[in-house]
Each structure stands twice: as structure tokens, then as C-alpha cells.
Design goal:
The protein has a domain at about 10-65: Helix Hairpins (Orthogonal Bundle), CATH 1.10.287. About 55% of the residues lie in helices and about 0% in strands. It has two helices and no strands. The chain has helices at about 15-30, 35-70. Helix 1 runs antiparallel to helix 2. It is elongated and about 60 Å long.
Amino acid sequence: MPKKTMPAKNAGMKNFEERLERLETLGEQIRKSDIPLDEALAAFEEGIRLARALENDLEKIENRIEILMNSTEAPADESPDLELFEQ
């Protein structure tokens, strides 16, 4: 039985954190002064694609949070406990 491949959306990377780490690695590569221009350009292009995909994922997460926060299941006079998000 052939292995299932991941959707192209994730470009073979399993999760948000791995893709973010890859973006950070690409940024470090581009900052090196000894990297050839064609490699820097390829890293930049991949980084742009990753950044856009990650931004899209964050927007989806924000929308889900918005839906959860505005859910009609909670009593109207009860505000959600956001203690975990406070610093």
C-alpha cells in the first residue's frame, strides 16, 4: 500500500511550528554574507511562500477563536476566563 502524501499546502511539513522553524532557518541563511545569490533568492522565495501560508493559518485560528468567544452557548452575562493569556 503506498504511503499517503501530505497536502501541498503544508509542503511536506507536519505542523505550524515546523514550518515556522523552517522560515526562521531560511532567514538565517539569507543573512549569511557568503551565500550565492541564486541560493539566497531561492530561500527568499520559499520564505515568502511559507510566510503567506503561516499568515493564512493564523487568520484561520483567529477566526476560530472569534467564533468560540462569541458562541451563543455561554450565558450572555458570563465573560470568558482569559487568565491563561494574561502575563
